[in-house]
Fold histidine kinase.
Amino acid sequence: MSNAATAQSNLLIVDDEPNQLLTLRDIFESEGFQVFTCQSYEEALQQSGNQVFAVAILDLQLHGHDGIDLLRQIQQLQPAMRVIIHTGYGSFHSAKDAVNLGAFAYVEKSYDPAELIHWVHRAVKDLLSEALSHSEQKFRELLDDVKAIVWECRLPQHRFSFVSQQAEAILGFPVQRWIDEPTFWDERIAQEDRSRYEAFCAACAAGADSARDGDVELRVVASDGRIVWLHIVTHLVVDADGNPTMLRGAMFDVTHQKVSEQQLRDMEIQLEHVSRLTTLGEMVAGIAHEINQPLAAIANFAVAAKVAIANDNCEHSVPVESWLETICNQTENCGQIIRGLRSFAKRGHGDQQWIDLNQIVRDSVNLVQCNPHNQFAEFVCAHSDAPLTVFGNPVQLRQVLVNLLQNACDATRGRDHPTIAINVAVGDEHARVSVRDNGSGIAPAQQAKVFDAFYTTKQEGIGMGLAISKSIVETHGGKLSYDSSSDGSTFYITLPLSNDSPQTDAPPQEHSLS
């Protein structure tokens, strides 16, 4: 506080007796004070307005003025100043009035000035004590406003001697635990960072140059179990011989920064993954295109061979014609698969058109069922042979159905009697396609993340299928939902019907595609 130095030296004495003033001035100058003297009420007010005083000694009677009234006036000018009433006409009532108005002491005049000297020194100490307390309060308020844990610990024991209140706000533990419990801080540090922290402590205790003004980042467990990242900046205090005695520093909560950095790294990895998948999709489309040519040639030559054999009218010991017929059929099946792959791999565009939802379902089931890895399951479709016309993008809707069907196959793999049921139903305003499997269902802990991008429970999965499918269905104005239990899962694609779309009321038929 700026008045602290002044409080040790400036003393105002107000008395209308000149000899008394001279005597008191000599006494207190010998005590080390800078003394200012006044003989009148008006002069005392003027001095109090121009100069800061630690203590004022006021006579009670001042040529027609009351010392109590002067006390009142100078306290308004300098509230921190300690005022001592010094009078030869003391009374109980005047002493009571002085104390009630805030006088520090009430001393009667005598030949021995010891009591007055005692009270003046005591007043100075009281002023300095208040100034120190005020300074400490300001310092603590400043520390509490700083968004960091300011601390000090003794070496080599690493015992905390001071911790700011921000420790409680950041980590949730009472500050006193840091100071009272020797192992409190060490036990808060995450297991993964303890060896690094121990190495840092050893460097501090040894007075290493790296620890004199160093920093370290640690993960700490908060009172609610959260992991908090702290960036710790330290300063090492050494004695005259260079031995470490104290470690001081500040801990900054950088959890948000660390989480943001990790999210950025995850996004970069995800983007790289998507880029690889895009390249792979383009390669698949190109390969499908190239394979389609030799398949067409195989089919043509098989047909030509079959015609040539038929024209020769020769009998064979083996069913060559049947074999050629099988080659033709299998080649056509391969061609259908490749055409489906090419269509599926095409980049989806925003153009929408009237499409037959039943046909989309049939194409998707055929595409998934043609995969040899999926032929263990029985596919049961309940839909109408009549067109069910909706407005949408056929490539994108086929992508959604293929993804749901493939997930159903993965869910039923290894189950007894694996069955996948596909149903198409029509309501007043919506068409709904359901895909049900008899797998083990989705675990409750995983259900909230089912549609999250890059979340997957499959060892070889990438976690994008359902996220993309949900986005596609919502782009069509519909909704992708599900329910799941230990008996299996059912996913629902709900799409809006247009009043302009021609619908039929033909009853659905169930087709077993096992």
User: Anything to note?
Assistant: Residues 21 and 307 are 143 Å apart (CA to CA).
